[in-house]
Amino acid sequence: QVQLVESGGGLVQAGDSLRLSCAASGGFFDNYIIGWFRQAPGKEREFVAGISRRGGTTDYTDSVKGRFTISRDNAKNTAYLQMSSLKPEETGVYYCAADSNIVVGAPQRELDEYDYWGQGTQVTVSS
Q1: What mean pLDDT value characterizes the chain?
Q2: Looking at residue 102, what is its pLDDT?
Q3: CB under 8 A, 24+ apart: contacts of 115-118
Q4: How open is the CA angle 104-110-116, to the nearest 5 degrees?
Q5: Which CA distances in Å does 123 have to 43, 88, 105?
Q6: Nearest-CA neighbor of 114 among 21, 49, 42?
Q7: CB-CB contact of 81 with 69 (8 Å)
Q8: CA dihedral 101, 24, 45, 122 (to 10 degrees)
Q9: Nearest to 109 by CA among 40, 23, 49, 30
Q10: CA angle (61 as vertex; 57, 70 as ends), nearest 5
């Protein structure tokens, strides 16, 4: 099974950019669809972006379209979330997750579709 470790979080100001990384080990990375989720204080975890196994299909929640970019480098067993024009309401813990369902090709938005989760990385956007 795959283990996921997020990094790259931090404290930034509104309008700044940040790149998160999700490093995978213990499995064949390109067997997994990867999703990024975030959980704001006191709120439920929500889908942010997802990417298919080879990177050909991506999906974004509406609020981040045009500002966030998800990508992956299967040779490095790493996925990324490039975030720009960050907003204070996007403060939270960001998690990457892996979906091992071989039947599905496109990234899914539902949390319970994902089998493996990282520990999360904190992103704080100050106003």
Answers
A1: 97
A2: 84
A3: 115/1, 116/1, 116/2, 116/3, 116/4, 116/32, 117/4, 118/4, 118/5, 118/6, 118/22
A4: 75
A5: 15, 10, 29
A6: 49
A7: yes
A8: -170
A9: 49
A10: 45
| pLDDT tens per residue, range 59-118 | 999 999 999 999 999 999 999 999 999 999 999 999 999 999 888 899 999 999 999 999
Tokens encoding 91 = 């403060």
What percent of the chain stands above pLDDT 70? 100
pLDDT band at 127 (very low <50, low <70, confident <90, very high): very high
Total residue length of the chain: 127
Please tell me the distance from the alpha carbon of residue 51 to that of residue 72, in angstroms, as a whole number. Answer: 8
User: Hey, what amino acid is at 76?
Assistant: K
